[in-house]
Amino acid sequence: QVQLVESGGGLVQAGGSLRLSCAASGRTFSNDAMGWFRQAPGKQREFVAAIGRSGRTTYYTDSVKGRFTISRDNSKNTVYLQMNSLKPEDTAVYYCAADRERRPYISRLITSYDYWGQGTQVTVSS
């Protein structure tokens, strides 16, 4: 059974940093592209960042470019999201997800991801 477990969320002041982790089990982690998504209250879930199977390719939504960094450690079955210069508009529940299809590209579509974690709350105060 596939499990994705996020951790690292919390309350931080604007301008601060957080590092999210997502530990995967139940599949060969290096076979899957991984993504981070977020959902703010009253809003739809949106794409944040994704990383290819080897970790060489990454993809970010425009609003986090230059502030967030996605990375993975296949030896630890873990994907990370380093979030710097946080803004109040970054407040959301953050989810990691796994894409099991061996695509030649990284997808930002929610429907491309097959497995999801339970989410971790990130709150940025102004």
Please report the distance between the alpha carbons of the first and last residues. Answer: 40 Å
Shape: globular
**On the 0-100 scale, what is the average pLDDT?**
96
**Secondary structure: number of strands:** 11
Stretches where pLDDT is under 50 for at least 5 consecutive residues are: none
Characterize the main sheet.
Answer: 7 strands, mixed
Q: Residue share in helices? A: under 10%
SSE topology string: EEEEEEEEEEE
Question: Explain this structure to me?
Answer:
The structure is a single chain. The chain starts with a strand and ends with a strand. Helices cover 0% and strands 48% of the residues. β5 and β6 (58-60) form a beta hairpin. Strands 2, 4, 5, 6, 9, 10 and 11 form a seven-stranded mixed β-sheet that branches. The chain is globular, with a radius of gyration of 13 Å. It is mainly β and 126 residues long.
